[in-house]
Design brief:
single chain, alpha/beta, 6-stranded parallel β-sheet, two-stranded antiparallel ribbon, 8 strands
């Protein structure tokens, strides 16, 4: 099966990133989002804290109900915090959208096969947890359907599983000063 190229699929799926507050998981998704947004004030990229993107996005969604929160994370990061999928589904934040960039590998640590490469389907887990909207994207047609879900700002929580090839994310050298990045994101929130 020819899977989508993350470098092309993610910008198409997200479109105008400025309409979201974006929390990104570490590794590939951080590079994807950093490259797309140039670390604009509406983005916070995780690094070195595997499993932190989902709970942080949930907290942000609950504390900022009038903002649209987008969590972009990888299969490894979401596998690390699967219990949070159930918490999100039962808490039902209408303003939370999750994109799981699934390359079926732990790209951060050398490309070992992740559980999704061994048959675990995070879309089915999200659906079984009670997400009202889930979508698996494998083809370009499905990519446009997923974009419509984000563009229509459907009532969430929404879980989108974006299946991508094992190609590398865009080359991007991010700011590793966590204090600066936290301050920039926080300042954007309280403006």
């Amino acid at each position: 099966m020819n899977l989508l190229d993350r470098k092309k699929a993610i910008p198409i799926l997200i479109g105008d990133h400025k309409r979201f507050l974006i929390i990104s998981g570490l590794a590939g998704p951080a590079k994807d989002i950093g490259f797309l947004t140039k670390e604009s004030p509406n983005t916070f990229l995780f690094g070195g804290a595997m499993g932190g993107a989902l709970p942080t996005s949930l907290g942000l969604a609950l504390s900022r109900p009038k903002e649209t929160i987008l969590c972009v994370s990888g299969d490894g990061d979401i596998l690390m915090s699967m219990g949070c999928l159930a918490t999100i589904a039962t808490t039902k934040p209408k303003n939370l959208f999750i994109i799981c960039v699934d390359n079926a590998s732990y790209l951060e640590t050398g490309g070992q096969t992740s559980h999704t490469g061994l048959g675990v389907n995070l879309d089915i887990i999200a659906e079984g947890s009670g997400f009202p909207i889930t979508k698996t994207i494998v083809t370009e047609e499905e990519l446009l359907e997923g974009k419509k879900i984000l563009d229509d700002n459907c009532s969430g929580p929404v879980f989108i599983l974006l299946k991508v090839s094992k190609s590398n994310p865009p080359k991007y050298s991010r700011n590793w000063n966590a204090s600066e990045e936290k301050f920039k994101f926080r300042k954007n929130l309280i403006k």
